[in-house]
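Q&A log
Question type: sequence-to-structure
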Amino acid sequence: MEGSIRVDTKQERVAEISGHLIHTVKFGRGLLGHVDQGGTFEVRQAEVAPGYWELTALSVHMKGKALFFKTISVQQYYSRSELKLVPQNLTVAQGMDILRHTVSTNRQQDSRR
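Response status: OK
Response body:
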């Protein structure tokens, strides 16, 4: 594995970690399975409110085999942005209003693209 780690030194938190497999990884000398060379991953998190961190991006692309026969393929991408902390006394109705407004705004922006 070869990669990098970015640390937020003020918060003493891992902000980002990424890497790629430079060699095939074998389990049980390859009898139990292997993960192919070239697979990549990236994980990012950010402080969304003072002292509160959330996962903002995850990207995993790996291929391999398990027990000779089962092909393993993980192609996952996950991204979140514009995370906001809401008041602790937020009611369900207020939360639904925020969600409706956000969805409506996102649809309008998508239709303009």
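Response note: The beta strands are 2-8, 13-20, 25-27, 33-35, 40-49, 52-66, 70-79.
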